[in-house]
Amino acid sequence: MQEMSQAGAKVLNAQAVQFAKNSQIAIYARSTFHPGKETVIRQLPLEIPKGVKAVVHEKEIIRVVLQSNNINEDFEWLLKFLEDKQVQIKELNLIASENDNNKSKLSFIISPNNIYELDNTKNKLTGKFGSKIEFDQNFGAVSLIGEGLNRDNSILLETINILKNNEIKIWGITTTSFRISLLVQKELLEQCIKICHKRWIEELVEFPA
């Protein structure tokens, strides 16, 4: 549930789930429209089998890319600026270069719906970094949520192959123990969601623990 929330699903607040996890509190999420149905959120036991339990997506995202020959100083300034603006970043990736002739590259995702005065924030970043920073709103994110998704590469490899066979290019991949997130072009997002949902949810695919 926490991974779903962080990946864009309109469920429980991710910080609330983390607090409950730290406090060993079980959360009972009940439906307003279907009395008697509920989802119990608690620490998963070790015997839970590996498999995808949900496919969620986030359509309105901005991919920010900063290239710099002075990445340490620029990175520190950027983090402090975003902290002051209360802008939450996700999928942070830094590729540093030891060669002064090659720029280091920093990329991350932000959700525009959660940013106050987005245009003002973008203008200030552009004023600071100029052409070194880029904002790309042409992508959407699809996330597979489940237990043990990265114990091996089978789920990720099959998903890559399925999307490749459907001519959907993946522009970025991020993984955690409970999530595989894929960055795809926004116009292909709905197709990508349907393909992943059909394969991993409708076909009820599970793997041995």
Task: Determine the strand fraction and express it as a percent band.
Answer: 25-35%
Query: Which secondary-structure class do the elements indicate?
Result: alpha+beta
Largest sheet: 4 strands, antiparallel
Oligomeric category = single chain
Order of strands across the widest beta sheet?
3-8-10-9
Percent helix among the residues? 25-40%
How many discrete domains? 3
- Mean pLDDT rating: 84
Rg (C-alpha, Å): 19 Å
Low-confidence stretches: none
User: How many individual β-strands?
Assistant: 10
Described by the principal axes of the CA atoms, the overall outline is: globular
The CATH architecture term of the largest domain is 2-Layer Sandwich
**In CATH terms, what is the fold-level topology of the largest domain?**
Alpha-Beta Plaits
- Distance N terminus to C terminus? 20 Å
Which CATH C-level class of the largest domain is it?
Answer: Alpha Beta
Number of helices: 6
Q: What would you give as the CATH superfamily of the largest domain?
A: ACT domain
Order of helices and strands: HHEEEEHEEHEEHEEH
Verbal overview:
- The protein is an alpha+beta fold and 209 residues long.
- It folds into three domains: 1-43, no CATH class; 49-61 and 138-209, ACT domain (Alpha-Beta Plaits), CATH 3.30.70; 62-136, Alpha-Beta Plaits, CATH 3.30.70.
- 32% of the residues lie in helices and 29% in strands.
- The strands form three sheets. Strands 3-8-10-9 form a four-stranded antiparallel β-sheet, covered by helices on one side. It has a four-stranded antiparallel β-sheet with strand order 5-6-4-7, covered by helices on one side. The chain has a two-stranded antiparallel ribbon with strand order 1-2.
- β9 (172-175) and β10 (179-185) form a beta hairpin.
- The two termini are 20 Å apart.
